[in-house]
Amino acid sequence: MAVTNELMTMQRALNVVVGGTNLTREEARGVMEIIMSGEASGAQIGAISTALRMKGETKDEITGFAEAMRSFSNHVHTERNGLLDTCGTGGSGIHKFNISTASAIIASAAGVRVAKHGNRAMSGKSGSADTLEALGVNITLSPEQAARCLDEIGICFMFAQLYHPSLKYAAGPRREIGIRTIFNMLGPLTNPAGADRQLLGIYDKSRTETIASVLGELGLKRAMVVSSFDGLDEISISSPTQISELLGGTVRTYTITPEELGLTTRSLSEVIGGDANENARIIRSIFNGDDFGAYRDIVLANAGACIFVGGGADSLQAGVAVARTVIDSGKAAMKLRQLIETTGELSHVS
């Protein structure tokens, strides 16, 4: 009988959305709870996500879905204050290297506590999990091991597949319909450690203000949602980037150019990456001081934003300067070695 009631709830939600009416935050949370519980059929999951996409997902709908997903997640229990994530949506269709992953390591080396959340590639050639694995990082830490890693060296990586097991119910329908839906936005909104600061890249610059507002509803203290005019879900060095900045519960939107960050505008083709091994090579070359070109510059832009959002600098420009110093001093390379060594050691600790 419970299943019948839940199915009727999904049917009512579909009728609401197909009719062009928005779900309330509570209704959206209830729909996602049904999905995460495995009580919705694949047809219903595909239908509701497609209908929401066609109507246009609201702040309340995205927030409700994210709240439910958070409640079903495996959590990392640690001090959340001043904790940064750099997880983005992906889906830009541009096969760049793993900029947010490199930026997270640099931010940690600058003294920002980082709980990096990420997954294997969904649309690109290499996700953060793939590239970190190629660098030698153990990506399969349990919540307890991740918390210890964070406490010991100031950074951890949380492999999304291990922390959101209930998403398996949506995996098939998502794959079968093959379009971007609300699920593409949820990963970056569901940090398992409850990070209260975030640099979040999104493929659609028309949604930066909405997503920044959602982050505020979810309790984040400070965040930047970025989307470049050339289609990157990163701060670009090839075009201006739109930024919606959350601070003190208020969202402010503006654009920034590479020159305003003290960087030179370069061709987008200069930041294209490859598979996991190639992206790992690029990151090592930046950290080892062997690369002073576009790869390094786009990492400086994004790592600078991470440092700024994480409280390690008073402006984006100052954050870029700190990131440059961290790389040139060898601290970034040292932090990567720490992450490799510590996650390797923790893999033998229950």
UniProtKB/TrEMBL annotation:
Summary of subunit composition and partner proteins: Homodimer.
Pathway info: Amino-acid biosynthesis; L-tryptophan biosynthesis; L-tryptophan from chorismate: step 2/5
Catalytic activity reported: N-(5-phospho-beta-D-ribosyl)anthranilate + diphosphate = 5-phospho-alpha-D-ribose 1-diphosphate + anthranilate
Cofactor binding remark: Binds 2 magnesium ions per monomer.
Protein name according to UniProt: Anthranilate phosphoribosyltransferase
Family matches, as SUPFAM superfamilies: Nucleoside phosphorylase/phosphoribosyltransferase catalytic domain, Nucleoside phosphorylase/phosphoribosyltransferase N-terminal domain
Pfam families: Glycos_trans_3N, Glycos_transf_3
Binding positions (anthranilate 2): R174
Similarity remark: Belongs to the anthranilate phosphoribosyltransferase family.
A single MF term (Gene Ontology): anthranilate phosphoribosyltransferase activity
Lineage: Bacteria, Bacillati, Bacillota, Bacilli, Bacillales
PANTHER family: ANTHRANILATE PHOSPHORIBOSYLTRANSFERASE
Binding site for Mg(2+) 2: D233, E234
Amino acids binding 5-phospho-alpha-D-ribose 1-diphosphate: 88, 91-92, 98-101, 116-124, 128
UniProtKB keywords: Amino-acid biosynthesis, Aromatic amino acid biosynthesis, Glycosyltransferase, Magnesium, Metal-binding, Transferase, Tryptophan biosynthesis
Binding site for Mg(2+) 1: S100, E234
Record's keyword annotation contains Glycosyltransferase: yes
E.C. number: 2.4.2.18
Residue stretches making up the Glycosyl transferase family domain: 82-333
Cofactor entry: Mg(2+)
Gene: trpD
Superkingdom of origin: Bacteria
Residues where anthranilate 1 binds: G88, N119
Matches recorded under NCBIfam families: trpD
Keyword S-adenosyl-L-methionine (UniProt): no
Gene3D superfamilies: Nucleoside phosphorylase/phosphoribosyltransferase catalytic domain, Transferase, Pyrimidine Nucleoside Phosphorylase, Chain C
